[in-house]
Amino acid sequence: MEASEDELDPLWGDLDWAIGAMFYMGFDGTEVTPQIRTLIEDHHLGSILLTTKNLISAQQTATLVKELQKIAHEAGHPVPLLIALDQENGGVNSLFDEDYICQFPSAMGVAATGSPELAYDVANATGKELFAVGINMIMGPVLDVLTNARYQPLGVRATGDDPQEVSQYGIAAMNGYKDAGITTCGKHFPSYGNLEFLGSSLDMPIITETLEQLSIGPLVPFRNAIGAGLDAMMVGGCAIANAGMNVMHACLSNQVVNDLLKDELGFNGVKISECLEMDALSHDIGVRGGTVMAVESGCDLVLLCRSFAIQQEAISGLKLGIENGMISKDRIHQSLKRILGLKSKCTNWNQALNPTGISHLSTIHPEHLALSTKAYDKSITVMRDKGHLLPLSNSLYPEDELLLLTPLVKPLPASAATKVISEIGSTEQDKAIRSSIMNGEGVFRELGRSLARQRHGKLLHTSYTANGVRPVHENLINRAACIIIVTADANRNLYQNGFTKHVSMMCSVLSPGGKKKSLIVVSVSSPYDFAMDKSIGTYVCTFDFTEAAMSALVRALFGEFTPSGTLPGTLRKSRKVQKSRQHWLVESWNKDRDQVPLQALLKTVEKMSPSNRVCPLSGATAASFELMITTESDEQIEEEHFVVRNSSTQALFGFCSTYIYNGIGMIGAIFVDPAKRNLSIGHSLHKRSMRSLIAKRGIKKLQLGLGLPCIYLGIPMSDLTEGGRLKRWFANNGWDILCPRLLYTLTIRNIANWTPPEGLLQSIQRVSFAFDLIHGHENAETVLDHVRANAGPEVLELYRLALDDSKSCGVVRAKSPVDGALVGTIIISRQGTDLATYLPVLHAAGERVGGILAPVVPPSPQAGIVLQGLALLGIRQNKAHRATTCVLNWVQGDERDTLLGMGFDVLDAFEELSCKPEEFNGPALT
Question: Which GO terms describe its biological process (predicted)?
Fold first, then answer.
């Protein structure tokens, strides 16, 4: 039961303590390191995962665990640490000690016994051993359903592919752990049973089933375990993509953690993320952002396995997420209550500081050893024995030689072979021994010795590799009467499959004496290697290759017991899916940190833009977005920019710039790395920027697109298909797209060959407007008054900057012949102007570009001819400055046709959107 707010220790009111309780971390080292001490003492870390890198023996584990708890107690932790490890048995054990800790079969091996009661007994024994050394949580049971068993690396860690059978054995194991005093954590939600792997560690494995398929299959064991009282759930680090769900990392998805696990399946226990240090996750998102996503999605504990630097990064990321308003303090306390409720089930200070230890392990070890032998014997499965070769004592003559062929595999993490490696020294001889063992020669050495003892020395043993059947193998096969081939995941290590098939063919050929050679294939990992291949007449499965499993295999082969195991499950095929969307941590722009990554992002976006389409970012630099302008106090410019970044690699995935000009809040640019599009990065940036703008005091208007910096005047519409998609996107994010203002960038690409249209000069002369050119601020006050009255504040600021740059810019004025009042203005710029920083099109349009910028001509019967006169003077000035290309920027919709008639072409088109803050109806307000 969750504690109420009133029942919580006042210490938890300190947010740093509450944040520390939400992390679940590991470390490297068999003793307490300064890093883990710092995490416990200074960052108030509340949960620790121990792995094979931490554990040497039962005694050392008990000492280490007690020391960790002692540090927490002395540091003022109100409750003990949650200390967990993976102890799935089979090939996945973090703790190995042949004197005190018993080895039991894998989950599939236990299921092969056909006895849920035995599953309970094995789990209960494992739980008691862990409890004795101070462990209070186990990362289990595995509840995945192998819907594609043949090619999945999860393999024998799972029970099988029958959802009901997985439920039955999973719940039995869960109850066994809980009755031993250990809390449980089901994994790997929503399922690792049918993952598609894209080949790289940076590619996220993908779940292939639809929601309907998940519901009737893989989700069944999770739903049933929840109903039976599962304490915690680990949510996997995999992608899901189907018609009903599209996420890139399950443990970071609100759809998975909150909607599916909590709401649909009704799980109210502790939700734990997959390790955020996994390559695919940290490279795609970054640890800081991933941490916030995990908590935002509903995870209570965020797992980070080893790196102290990354762990600190995650803590700072969560704090930043709270500061940004993405995560509320109430959300943190909801998780805290669940975590404290979990700890109350499995630990207290008296228990944590006084584990029962080695003396208790000595007492229960004989009983557990007998249970181990029983479980392994019952798990050995003979799928086929067509030639009645078993037991070998009945089919081999005493003088016959037996050949054992074994693959090169790495020792299991917790095994006698690994222990030997850890004890080898550093001499050249020691290194040679270490190399020999690590390349797999030693893994099946004891199996060979055991078989030799049974055969009184009549045994030949050698290994095989991807080099196939070599002359040495042929010679040994010719000598032997019976061959045993060991395979370990032959469906994924295809050389084993090919080798076995080749030897099988050789054995089927009659020997000179007229007798076929006997062949026995033993799968020591996935039983699906040759489950469906009936050409392999005798096929035996052990489900793991621990020393205990190999010992049971020898006893089975020589008839000391009759194998009674059965193979769980059937096989299903996988389908491809796609990557997906997420919510992203948005951070404020930091010039020192983000300037170089932004420059790289700009280059990437420009490079990936279609060659036949204008990219508004062409010519832009990181400096283009930072105005840093001091202006009049009543027209103060504020700017605030946001990024989505990978804090681990420092790369930017997206950028958004915002400005406030005299009460108008504007988005000046928003763009995303093309490789990261359709993952909701833009949505997250937009939401964060709009929330920031709306929260500012005095905001009277919101605007999408602006003239300074003049990068995006609005939604780009050069490509109607892409523009239409963007309009729908902004409409879905709250903008009114019904009444946009059309803005254009025009160009004359070869000024030298341009001539005024016939009659243009005469028309301008007839109206008698006076045109002149001014530089600098002298006599400029009337210009600024004119712009202030007839254009937006960003255009006014553009004129100020042009007047500041008197060497490269000037302003053409059009005056009324009646009273001398201004009826139009325009900026003219030459190459090298400072304005080009904020108008990158002046760089991108060509090598020698002259600018005619921001025409301000109020409506009147003669506005068109005034605009043409201003443009004409601008073209002449560009020619005089030896420009080859002319760009006319910030042209309003009703002015475009007038200027096209002069010979300009459209370079780019935009739709500027605007609305009042109270009318904005986007996600930023929810």
Answer: carbohydrate metabolic process; peptidoglycan turnover
